[in-house]
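Continuing the batch. This is chain 6 of the set; chains 1 through 5 are on the previous pages. Same settings as before, nothing changed between runs. Recording input and output for traceability.
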Amino acid sequence: MELVQGSTDGANDKSTLFLLSGEALVVFGAGLIVSNPFIRKHMSQLGVGSLAQAAMPNIERYFRLRAM
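Output for chain 6:
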């Protein structure tokens, strides 16, 4: 019965807080990197946008297969 109720000492809340704060830091850091004009210039030369567009049909096909 103890496994069903979970922990009562807040360890679960603390780990969730750490997980969400880590994700927020990753998103913030990625935003800082992408906002740099030097990085933007190199990303446009590499064609990152066209790479993402090329991957979309495969991702859609994957989700359709998973829904079956």
